[in-house]
Amino acid sequence: MRILVAAIAAACVSAAAAAPVGFDLEGHRGARGLAPENTLAAFRRALDIGVTTIETDIAITRDLVPVISHDPLLNPDLVRDKTGGWIKRRDIPIHSLSFDELAQFDIGRVDPQSGYAKSLPLQTPVDGERFPALKDLLQLVRSAAKPVQLNVETKITPDNEGQTVDPATFTRLILEAVKAAGLRDRVILQSFDWRSLLESKKVAPDVPTSCLTMASSSMNTMTPGPDGKSPWHAGLALSDYGSIPALVKAAGCSIWSPFYRNVTPALIAQTHALGLRVIPWTVNDETEMGRLIDLEVDGLITDYPDRLRNVMRAKGMPLP
Questions:
Q1: Residues of 32-41 as b/e, b for ≥16 C-beta within 10 angstroms?
Q2: Where are the domains positioned within the chain?
Q3: Distance of alpha carbon 12 from the chain centroid
Q4: Alpha carbons 36 and 308: distance in angstroms, whole number
Q5: Any long-range contacts for 38-41 (C-beta under 8 Å, 24+ apart)?
Q6: What's the pLDDT tens digit per position in 134-188?
């Protein structure tokens, strides 16, 4: 494992050059606060606002098509069937459906009775939006008026075996689609489950990777298992490296993307000292955006890229 880690870290020198330069304004799931998440409508909205990076998520269908979806399972808060009614079941993996079967569902609005809808009061419905294939988003990016990056998350977890493909296949399918679109130099691969990131470094060391982390009461990817290693970290142990930034570097990532409440000035300084970038997620409050910018993070992921642009403008920062 240590030999592999060393090889991955060396490969990251060239990958870092492909990462975005300047402050990275990332639209989360396109622009989730303003348009239905992870739809072409949301991605167009993000482009219209002016982001440097579109952040999105990938699932894999039964016929091995990479599609855009945050949830590996169909989410009843977001998904309507052919009758126009919200689906009832929460146990249908996208991987159990073919791409044609998935295309029957409408994801153009949130169920207004759900807590999800109440958390997104400014989102404008766009009925008729379907789960896009990754190739659809890549085509949109290729045709955009200004160059934009893609930050693509593999929606795979250490405990969801059977709900999707294995990490190596997951990564290969994404990279094949990116290569076919001629956009390999504009893509970052990110994940909480670092197995897919190490797989990416094996086959595409030039593609930057971003290590996602979260430590909270609802989800904690940092908690070690009985062997002293978090199951999210692809066999790496935090105790072997002494700090989260050092662990991220050992995994071959050029970006550390933590839950924004886990960020501290000391961790930012440690990350920068290792030559890595810090891009927290998901920051929607303008005061909090300003605070993190003052701490010298390298970018922010937000549901409201329009708000982040306003904060950047007020601080006299260059706008994309």
A1: bbbbbbbbbb
A2: 2-314
A3: 19
A4: 19
A5: 38/68, 38/69, 38/70, 38/107, 38/131, 38/132, 39/68, 39/107, 39/108, 39/126, 39/129, 39/130, 39/132, 40/129, 40/132, 40/136, 40/137, 40/140, 41/108, 41/126, 41/129
A6: 999 999 999 999 999 999 999 999 988 788 999 999 999 999 999 999 999 999 9
Largest alpha-carbon pair distance within the chain?
Answer: 55
> In this structure, what token pair is assigned to residue 33?
């606060």
- Bridge partner residues of 86 (DSSP): 80
CA–CA separation, 121 vs 137, rounded Å? 25
Q: Does domain 2-314 have CATH number 3.20.20.190?
A: yes
**How do residues 22-61 score in pLDDT, each as one tens digit?**
999 999 999 999 999 999 999 999 999 999 999 999 999 9
Helices (H) and strands (E) in the chain, counts: 11, 9
For the record, the structure tokens of 81 come out as 């069937």
- Degrees (nearest 5) of the Cα angle 250, 255, 259? 105
